[in-house]
Structures are given as structure tokens and as C-alpha cells.
Design a protein that fits this description.
The complex is a heterodimer of chains A (53) and B (469). Chain A is mostly helical and 53 residues long. Helices cover 64% and strands 0% of the residues of chain A. Classes of the chains: A mainly alpha (53), B mainly alpha (469).
């Protein structure tokens, strides 16, 4: 891949983020569970409740 | 402090005002800090306008159910689209869409971000200015004639405050969030006042523009909730990049940014159903006299200021990606970001208020395909592999260069998604076509754009060896 001229500080940051240790963490199993509960399960319950009520 | 430490600290502060990726140790927001900042950004007087539009079609209970469901679904969509990349690499929403749109094509989401944030901020500040004017007239403090200058003057003052708060970057956003989050509780108190004093009226009220088809009304309530929360796409990256772990961000994102909107929208639903006005500064005065009116106005001011601060910060970080604006001083960049809001607020305030429904539908039409493309690309095409260097270095031969910087898969998917939305729900007339009643317009748009992106990538982009798939 071509390397264009970039500021030294940006280069330092990119290098740090190219390693797995330098990156933040993606959603884990616990996050997916909460996303499912809050983003799918609760809305479905709310929709049924609202329609029936 | 030593010279080396001082230099290091200065670089960190400057990174906070740039679109450069943040390093792990610079991303120090915990779940509470993130949740509070997101809640402050989400809880604004747009909730009343969103509630007002829902109240046109649905009663109090059904309106809340539809709006809550739609909002949480919308929040989930945004969380899946932008958050994983932003949180892994400490980047904003615009950087997160470079792997899909290309090293030049990101300009499309960037333009959508600017339009969206300018639109919302204008709406908020105009709302605040109108509330101030109404209250001062009602209190007899100014004659009607003075409103010509008061509305623009108030908008200008609010913009000046936003500028001052943000001079120190995200630190200003964090500080203002901690103070202004109190307004969320004032909002609940106002809702309590309205519900306890006018419950019988709320229960008996009929929505003014309800269609004969109950299912259409209900689906439209859900649609309003989803598209309202898709508006958070431009905002969310600049804030979640301050948190380093998906594990601690998922709940703050869903609860902090997703839940306040439907809850505070109840104020707008109740207000429009009972008093035919969603502005709490006006109906609180009707119910409790001038004191309540002033409290409500302070609430409106705090709510809108917090959101405008978050919006302008996200917008400024987004502008940093544009060549030429990456090296402009932070105060200058803030002025460039705020200027369109001032112009809209001063010259065409009524246009925004009159066309809020169309603006919402535009958000759905623009951001649903964008989110569909991002989700499909990250989870089903790249399997979470991102080239962080290519997000910031975009010359010939780089991974996200595609064809002259544009990815045809994303462009076709955007076009297909917009077409799908337009077919399902006309943003200007709100005329809908099947299967809108059962699916909303946003969800099929999301799926269609995602599928087009996957299809074109597999038959054109990948075989051509482009995009780093």
C-alpha cells in the first residue's frame, strides 16, 4: 500500500492503532445481550402492549 | 510539568479537536460519563416536536409505545452501524464510513451529517428563541413589536454560548453535559405536572390528523421514532470515541441516547393532545402560571444548549476530514460550523418549523441506507477487519481508494435505498405504499441498501481486487 506524506503525530497514532493492543474493544457477548434486550426484545414487547392496550 | 510532558499534553488536547484517531489512554470516558453526555445530547426540545408529530396520529399510550419501540430500534441500528468502528479506532462517524464509501466518497455521508446537524441545531435554537419571545410577551415584559429583533438576537446569543463552551474541545462538552443533564429531571417533573393535572383530558383526547387505518397510524408512530433516532448517527461517533470498550458503551448508548427521546416526547404528545401546543414553556404557563413558565423556559434553554454543543462539536470534527479544514485553527473551525446555523436561524426560521415532518423523512431516507451499508460491510463483508491507515491516507493505491476514491457498491446501495424509501413513504406528502403498514419505510430501506451493497461488492468490487475485502 502506498504511504503518502502524513503528519508525524498522525503516523504515530496510526501505528499504535494498527496493533490489536492499541485498539479499543468491539462489542462482546455481554454487549450483544444488552443490545438484543434493549434494541429488539423491549421494542417488541412495547409494540404488542401498545397495540393490545 | 516538564517540557516533554507539556508537549505530550498539548498533542492530546489538539487530537481532541481533530479528526485524528484517539489513542487508548486518551479515551477516558467511563459508562456513566458517556451515558450522561449522550443523554444530554439526546434530550432536547426536538423531543416535543417529535412528540407533537406522533400526537397527530396516536393517543398518549399508543403514541408512547410506538415511539419507544421505534426509538430503541433506531438506536440499535445506529449502534450497529457506526459504534463498532468508532469505538475500536477512536474515530468519529465520518471516518467510520470511509471503508464503505471510499477515500473520496465519504464526502456524501459528511454532507448528510452537516445538513442533518445544521437542520437540528437550527430547529432547536429557533424553538428556544420562540419560547423566550412567547414567555416575555405573556409576562408583559416586551411588546409584540419587539419580537422582530428578539428571535434573531436570542439565536445569536445561544450560538455565541455554544462557541464559548466548545473552545476547549470535548472537555467543554463533558463539563456542560454534567451540568445540563439536570434538565432531564426537570422534564420528568413537567411531565408529572401535566399527567397528574390533566390525565382525564389526555385519556379522552383524539389525535387531530389520525388516518382511518389504525395500523397506518401505529406504524407511522414507529417510523417517527426510528428516523428520529437515526439522526444520532452524525453525533454518536464523536462521543463514543471517547470510550475505549464496547462492553461499557452498549448500555449507555441504548439507555442514554435511545430512551430519553420517547420518554421526553411524552411531554409533546400530552401537550398537543390536550392543549394543542407542544412547547412546554407555553403550556406550563397555562397550567401553573408565570413561575412554571419560567422554569419550563430555563429547561428549554438548558436542553437545547446541551444538544447544540454536542452537535456543533460532532459537526466540527466531521469538517476536519475536508482538505483545507484539517489545519484551520479550532476557533475558526467552530465559527465555520456555527455560521450556517446562525444564517438559517436568522433568515428562514419558519421554513424549518413548517417542514419538520419532511425533514424527519429526509433523515430516514438518507441515514437508513447509510446504516444498512455500514452494517452489511462491517459484519458480512469485512468480518470486522478494518485498515485504520487507509481511513486517513487516501492516495492512489491505498485500500479504500476503490475507483477514484468512490465505491460503486455503496453509491448504488445509497441510490437503491433512497428509491426504496421514496416508494414506501413520500417525505413530502406522507403518502405510503405497501408494505409500509407492516414494515415501516426505514427497515426495508436498511435491508435493501445492505443487500445491494453486498451484491455489488461480491460481483464487482471484490473480483476487481478493490477495497481490501
Amino acid at each position: 500500500m502506498a504511504h503518502a506524506e502524513i503528519p508525524a503525530e498522525l503516523e504515530r497514532r496510526i501505528r499504535a492503532l494498527e496493533t490489536a493492543e492499541g485498539q479499543g474493544e468491539d462489542f462482546d457477548a455481554n454487549s450483544w445481550l444488552w443490545l438484543f434486550i434493549l434494541g429488539i426484545l423491549l421494542p417488541v414487547i412495547a409494540l404488542i402492549w401498545g397495540w393490545v392496550a | 510539568m516538564s517540557d516533554a510532558a507539556l508537549t505530550h499534553n498539548t498533542i492530546e488536547i489538539e487530537a481532541d479537536k481533530s479528526a485524528w484517531p484517539l489513542l487508548k489512554h486518551e479515551r477516558n470516558w467511563g459508562p456513566w460519563q458517556l451515558g450522561i453526555s449522550l443523554a444530554t445530547a439526546a434530550a432536547a426540545t426536538w423531543c416535543y416536536i417529535i412528540g407533537e408529530y406522533t400526537g397527530y396520529y396516536l393517543g398518549f399510550g399508543q403514541g408512547f409505545a410506538a415511539l419507544f419501540a421505534g426509538s430503541m430500534i433506531g438506536m440499535l441500528i445506529v449502534a450497529l452501524a457506526a459504534v463498532p468502528i468508532c469505538i475500536r479506532f477512536g474515530v468519529d462517524s465520518i471516518a467510520s464510513c470511509k471503508p464503505q464509501f471510499g477515500s473520496a466518497g465519504w464526502i456524501i455521508p459528511a454532507a448528510l451529517q452537516q445538513i442533518s446537524i445544521v437542520g437540528w441545531n437550527s430547529l432547536l435554537l429557533i424553538f428556544f428563541a420562540k419560547s423566550t419571545t412567547q414567555l416575555l410577551i405573556a409576562l408583559g415584559m416586551i411588546p409584540d413589536a419587539d419580537t422582530v429583533w428578539l428571535v434573531p438576537g436570542t439565536i445569536f446569543l445561544a450560538c455565541a454560548l455554544v462557541f464559548l463552551f466548545l473552545l476547549k474541545g470535548s472537555g467543554g462538552l463533558d463539563r456542560i453535559s454534567k451540568i445540563l443533564v439536570a434538565h432531564v429531571f426537570v422534564g420528568f417533573w413537567m411531565l408529572y405536572i401535566l399527567v397528574t393535572q390533566r390525565w382525564a383530558d389526555i385519556e379522552a383526547a383524539k389525535p387531530a390528523y389520525a388516518a382511518p387505518d389504525a395500523l397506518w397510524n401505529y406504524t407511522t408512530g414507529v417510523e417517527i421514532g426510528i428516523v428520529s433516532l437515526l439522526s444520532w448517527w452524525p453525533y454518536i461517533g464523536a462521543m463514543v470515541r471517547m470510550a475505549p470498550r464496547g462492553r461499557t458503551a452498549a448500555v449507555p448508548v441504548m439507555i442514554g441516547m435511545g430512551a430519553p427521546v420517547p420518554v421526553l416526547s411524552l411531554i409533546g404528545i400530552a401537550g398537543i393532545l390536550v392543549l394543542q401546543v407542544s412547547d412546554p414553556a407555553e403550556w406550563m404557563r397555562t397550567i401553573g402560571g408565570p413561575t412554571y413558565g419560567i422554569i419550563a423556559l430555563l429547561f428549554v434553554a438548558a436542553a437545547n444548549l446541551g444538544t447544540a454543543v454536542a452537535g456543533v462539536y460532532a459537526s466540527a470534527i466531521g469538517l476536519r476530514h475536508f482538505p483545507g479544514l484539517d489545519r484551520v485553527s479550532w476557533p475558526k473551525l467552530l465559527l465555520i460550523t456555527i455560521a450556517p446555523v446562525v444564517l438559517v436561524g436568522l433568515f428562514i426560521p419558519e421554513l424549518f418549523f413548517a417542514n419538520f415532518g419532511s425533514f424527519l423523512a429526509f433523515i430516514g431516507m438518507a441515514f437508513a441506507p447509510l446504516c444498512g451499508i455500514q452494517i452489511a460491510d462491517y459484519f458480512f463483508l469485512r468480518y470486522r477487519r478494518i485498515d485504520v491507515r487507509a481511513m486517513f491516507v487516501g492516495g492512489p493505491g491505498t485500500t479504500y481508494r476503490f475507483w477514484s476514491g468512490f465505491n460503486p457498491a455503496a453509491l448504488l446501495a445509497m441510490a437503491g435505498g433512497c428509491g426504496t424509501y421514496l416508494y414506501l413513504l413520500n417525505p413530502l406528502t406522507y403518502v405510503s405504499h405497501a408494505p409500509y403498514d407492516y414494515t415501516t419505510a426505514t427497515l426495508p430501506t436498511l435491508v435493501v441498501s445492505g443487500l445491494i451493497h453486498i451484491f455489488v461488492t461480491r460481483i464487482v468490487v471484490k473480483p476487481a481486487g478493490k477495497g481490501g475485502y
